[in-house]
Write a structure and sequence with these properties.
This protein has one domain: TIM Barrel, CATH 3.20.20. Helices cover 36% and strands 19% of the residues. The protein is built from 8 helices and 8 strands; from the N terminus they run E-H-E-H-E-H-E-H-E-E-H-E-H-E-H-H. An 8-stranded parallel sheet has the order 1-8-7-6-5-4-3-2. Helix 1 packs across helix 8 and helix 2 packs parallel to helix 3.
Amino acid sequence: MLEIIPSILSADFSRLGEEIAKVERGGATMLHVDVMDGHFVPNLTVGPPVLRSIRKVTKLTLDVHFMITNPDPYVPLFVEAGADQISVHQEVCPHLDRTLRLIQSEGALAGVVLNPSTPATMLEEVFGLADFVLIMSVNPGFGGQQLIPRTLEKVRWVATRRREMGLKFPIEIDGGVTLDNLSEVVRAGVDWVVAGATVFLSPDPAATVVEMRRIAQESNAVRA
């Protein structure tokens, strides 16, 4: 269940196929794709055509993170383009139960995301429905930010409630994870670690994925 998920937000888009191949050589099995609308977050990124192009060059699981204000109409478009799983922000979904079920009805896994300032208790009613939970450890919109330490307390709370409720959904984290703080992140209860700048801005992305997987596995053994 423990995964290092490179985020293409920090990749070189002029050589995207080559960049993806590098992390595949490092053993990555999932790829994180940030979809931003310039409204919910102050940035614009990719749409279905880019995702469709990515799907053509890789068999990795495509983990699509919607940072958009009106996700429902775009769910079928991105699933058709190749998304294996889609996560949506609790903050923009007035009918979160319906949106998660919509994603699942289209054949993808459904995740729910929380911003750093949103209490984890907001997710209690969908813990039994969501396929995974994504905790933002930076304010969304840009790569290369530093991890906000208090977000790990949120991870610990979610991990505790998961155990108390007898559930097994993965906990994902996104933002500011580095080789230096990865061990602490995993010990807090994270199963899926998104890493953008740490991987793609390193001299050797494949080697960085290998090293992150090693650190994560060792830290997970301590957690267990």
